[in-house]
Amino acid sequence: MFAGQQKQTKPAPKKKPSSPKGALERKDGEQRIAKLLARAGVASRREVERMIAEGRIAIGGEKVDTPATLLKSLHGVTVDGKPVSQPEPTKLYLFNKPAGCLTTERDPKGRKTIYDILPKDLPRLMPIGRLDYNTEGLLLLTNDGEFKRLMELPATGVERSYRARALGNVSQERLEELVHGITIGGIRYGKIDANLERRTGANQWIEMTLTEGKNREVRRVLEHLGLKVNRLIRTRYGAFELADLEKGAVAAVRRADLVKFRSSLSKSVKRR
């Protein structure tokens, strides 16, 4: 070192900003625990997040504190102290839901739910979407939380068809205007394909096909048109139809039909 030359020191390395609690670095093959548990049919992602917040999920006996926890498998994971089984192949069932029951696992008011009606020998299943208490017809049930989520996303664009019996009068021309969408009470409802099927006395039967499936969408749109819905039946969800399935009955979708549908669904999502 020359005289008078000061010793140069290397600048201290910058510290990486601290990560929020529970944030982890993803490695090959790892997925969030919420996604894995949903795939295993434990519950939807949102419900899993609530279960984690309630301290009901643990790994090796230690409670999980974030749904962002990354895992390669569910080995050692427990829910309410019980081990979680590895995901089974996706299954799909058609259920003809009667009116007068809720699309939920339990009701604080003690009202009847679909699980009071479903056969007890079925695997653990989750409903894809919901039907109101007084709405009947096709309800899809699956053991795969990720498939459920994909089917419910508005961006996926899966069509739902309904038949509504409504008191009042409306013209076909007025119904056809719904193809452009409609805003009611500040809520925007997208394209609806609606057709006047027939009249029976003071009632009219109307067929409607939509893709968003917002809460009470069919009822609210028809009420906005001056009609009072007194019966509502969902007849189709995607490629699956109610057909002649008896009320309260369940039918399994063939594996080949499910694989074919999922393939077409994936292609549709990619195009969007």
Written account of the structure:
This protein has 272 residues and is an alpha+beta fold. It has 3 domains: 53 residues, Roll (Structural Genomics Hypothetical 15.5 Kd Protein In mrcA-pckA Intergenic Region, Chain A), CATH 3.10.290; 96 residues, 2-Layer Sandwich (Alpha-Beta Plaits); 79 residues, Alpha-Beta Plaits (2-Layer Sandwich), CATH 3.30.70. It contains 6 helices and 17 strands. Strands 7, 8, 9, 10, 13, 14, 15, 16 and 17 form a 9-stranded mixed sheet that branches. A 4-stranded antiparallel sheet has the order 3-2-5-6, with no helix packed on it. A two-stranded antiparallel sheet has the order 1-4. The longest helix has 17 residues. The protein starts with 30 loop residues before the first strand and ends with a helix. The N terminus is likely disordered.
Task: List its salient traits.
3 domains, 17 strands, Alpha-Beta Plaits, 272 residues, four-stranded antiparallel β-sheet, Structural Genomics Hypothetical 15.5 Kd Protein In mrcA-pckA Intergenic Region, Chain A
- General shape: elongated
pLDDT under 50 segments (min length 5)? 1-10, 12-24
What is the name of the CATH topology of the largest domain?
Alpha-Beta Plaits
Average predicted local confidence, pLDDT: 86
